[in-house]
From TrEMBL:
Domain YchJ-like middle NTF2-like per the UniProt entry, residue ranges: 42-136
InterPro entries to which the protein is assigned, alphabetical: NTF2-like_dom_sf, YchJ-like, YchJ-like_M
UniProt protein name: UPF0225 protein FHU37_001467
Taxonomy of the source species: Bacteria, Bacillati, Actinomycetota, Actinomycetes, Kitasatosporales
Domain of life, per lineage: Bacteria
Species: Allostreptomyces psammosilenae
Family per record: Belongs to the UPF0225 family.
């Protein structure tokens, strides 16, 4: 049984055909269904859906999947930043029977004509029964 999360509904500014998260699926059938309210069954799928939300500029989804203890009051997205590709490097725990998990990833982007990479080891927790992003772990 999937749990739906109530959230404000402004539609993403763009709707891609292929899912930005890198899985071989259409956006509507992959992260799009999570953006429309279906709960992510694992921490990794939540992380992928959050990456896709950055790619389609879905602020509401990003905020509602952020743990309330670390969620910013509002989220500004850089207008010139375009997310290009996601690489999941590792995932620990974060399954249906876990209460926490981590996902290490590399997110490739273009900003003002230059290419860049964000590498992060993110921590996720279950909150009110659903996976949420907590914070980034310090590497090193």
């Amino acid at each position: 049984m999937s749990r739906r999360r109530a959230r404000p509904q402004p539609a993403p500014t763009t709707t891609p055909t292929d899912c930005p998260c890198g899985l071989p699926a259409r956006y509507a059938d992959c992260c799009g269904r999570l953006h429309r309210g279906q709960a992510a069954p694992t921490a990794e799928l939540l992380m992928r859906s959050r990456y896709s939300a950055f790619a389609v500029r879905d602020r509401a989804y990003l905020l509602c999947t952020w743990h309330p203890d670390t969620r910013p009051p509002r989220l500004e997205l850089e207008p010139g930043l375009r997310w290009r590709r996601l690489e999941v490097l590792a995932a620990t725990d974060g399954g249906p029977f876990h209460t926490e998990g981590t996902v290490a990833f590399r997110a490739h982007y273009t900003d003002r004509g230059g290419d860049g990479v964000l590498e992060e080891h993110s921590r996720f927790l279950r909150h009110d029964g659903a996976w949420v992003y907590l914070d980034a772990l310090t590497i090193g």
